[in-house]
Amino acid sequence: MTQDVKEIFAGGAPPAPAALAAKVRTLAPSMTRSMQRVAEAVAGDPAGCAALTVTGLAELTGTSEATVVRTARLLGYPGYRDLRLALAGLAAQQQSGRAPAVTADIAVDDPIADVVAKLAYDEQQTLADTAAALDTAQLGAAVAAIAAARRVDIYGVGASGLVAQDLVQKLMRIGVMAHAHSDPHLAVTGAVQLRAKDVAIAITHSGSTGDVIEPLRVAFEHGATTVAVTGRPSGPVTQYADHVLTTSAARESELRPAAMSSRTSQLLVVDCLFVGVAQRTYETAAPALSASYEALAHRHSPRTGR
Amino acid sequence: MTQDVKEIFAGGAPPAPAALAAKVRTLAPSMTRSMQRVAEAVAGDPAGCAALTVTGLAELTGTSEATVVRTARLLGYPGYRDLRLALAGLAAQQQSGRAPAVTADIAVDDPIADVVAKLAYDEQQTLADTAAALDTAQLGAAVAAIAAARRVDIYGVGASGLVAQDLVQKLMRIGVMAHAHSDPHLAVTGAVQLRAKDVAIAITHSGSTGDVIEPLRVAFEHGATTVAVTGRPSGPVTQYADHVLTTSAARESELRPAAMSSRTSQLLVVDCLFVGVAQRTYETAAPALSASYEALAHRHSPRTGR
DNA sequence: CCCCAAAGGAAAATATCTTTCATAATGTGA
DNA sequence: TCACATTATGAAAGATATTTTCCTTTGGGG
């Protein structure tokens, strides 16, 4: 027990219990081929892998012990031994629990009802993965920075641009000066004016969208606190990010574009940021919140009561 | 290998999964004092012991490694390693049995980790509700109309405006001429030009947003097929809607504004529309889809392969 | 009081995990 | 296209953990 406590406090990142499949999905893109093979085996058959030794798993996946250990590390465990323990736990859980739901891909001839069910399931999965993989320390730091900020600039293009706007809408409502930029030139122009105590947030699934990285770099170099919301924690964008918030994306396919689950994931992160900031600035945020709450309630349901 | 052989000769008993506590009680009488201490520790705190190494457990119980191994054997495992694995499984089971407890409302002083869990849970709930309540007949009709449309106009303001834009981004990608309007005047101007075979979609959670209803009315009166995506299927907006798609919203509160879950719900509906249309227009949509899929894949992960 | 047998532990032997380092594969820029 | 830089990978050395061996201790009978 003592060890547990010490480890948690010392390591900072406690190893995941059942959020393993989530981590695999989240981190798979940033893995090398060999490591992906290992991760796949592990996610596919936790019980089977738990019975294997490093050497066994290495042979099974056609890799080396070193690669297995590297994969375990990437998944957040100190080494293979601990991954194996988590695997045993996972196996026990899913044996006692229910069978994993069907996760078939969406086909061209799926009836519409199936499409609804599959999309809903996928997005739920994405949410669970994101929540499990989100680093609350980083999130807390980002929240603190935003709450104390004089001004917040947010960069995002394409689908991420909409997420950026969503965050702006929310922050504005609680009195935080936030601006969304989708035009890279204007974004850089704005970034130049940022200083310490200002915050810049880049939202990019790929982590390598130049139009978004550039303004973040400028903001970073001007001393602003920078935050990256990305699905690739090892991507270029994190180079200029003080705090990295990792979004996860379920596997994608032709009829299920990446934009879909990455958007869901990004929105959850953004919501967390918002609620976090609202908590921190509750004194000032509360009036604004209830005001819009009241306004909406009054406008939308004048007679149905609640 | 040596282990296997011995195991087989020893009795062939497969290691116990969760019936560990029972085994301890059963076998305790036939144990020596030191072994009882070990068994006790193991049964008392599976999670804690799973984190310990043989040496650790030996020290904790004031015994030696050899005794720990002997105890493990007596409990039916080939060695301590396997006992430890079973322990990890047991711990995971116990933990998963514990209540989720995330159904509570978000409080001002909730730690950030709780916020994440609660938000994720809520949004998952919203998705499930929406999927369950969605009328697939209406959805199918809306999809058919969009797939056959010459042009699609989408109205939404505030948070719903972002959802409208999201749908536009997606539809554009598969070659559907879609436009989002957040300016009510321009929306009406555009609506005037719509005729039969065109589609107008209004997105409003409240179902009573005048700025969105007005253009939908105009479109309706000009003979366009009209769709309403709303959380109030009895609200004013449905008056002018040929097809109504109902979104659901989980309960809201001060720190959890309605915009959050309604947005999640709306996005799911919008995703379903998109996938439905993509299916129907697969011949023309497929090239566009794979093109953007490829483009993204190439641009974002030049080396991670598949 | 001495001897025996069971219990328990120290340390050697073995298996397992981790790290290091050299090599191969891959992308990059001229 | 080729040389170069970078990264990924596996073989083997090194470190830990587990198991076994064997010896010491303890607690009763003769």
Structure description:
Two copies of one chain form a homodimer. By secondary structure, the first copy, chain A, is an alpha/beta fold. The first copy, chain A, has two domains: 3-99, Winged helix-like DNA-binding domain superfamily/Winged helix DNA-binding domain (Arc Repressor Mutant, subunit A, Orthogonal Bundle), CATH 1.10.10.10; 133-296, Glucose-6-phosphate isomerase like protein, domain 1 (Rossmann fold), CATH 3.40.50. Chain A contains 14 helices and five strands. A five-stranded parallel beta sheet of chain A has the order 2-1-3-4-5, sandwiched between helices. The radius of gyration of chain A is 22 Å and the shape is globular. The interface between A and B is large, with 87 and 85 residues. The structure holds a DNA duplex (30 and 30 nucleotides).
Q: Helix and strand layout, with pairings?
A:
2 copies of one chain form a homodimer.
Chain A (H helix, E strand, L loop, with lengths): L1 H10 L8 H8 L5 H12 L1 H5 L3 H8 L3 H10 L5 H17 L15 H22 L2 H12 L4 E4 L3 H15 L4 E4 L2 H9 L6 E6 L5 H12 L3 E6 L12 E4 L11 H23 L1 H19 L6
Parallel strand pairs in A: 1-2, 1-3, 3-4, 4-5
The structure holds a DNA duplex (30 and 30 nucleotides).
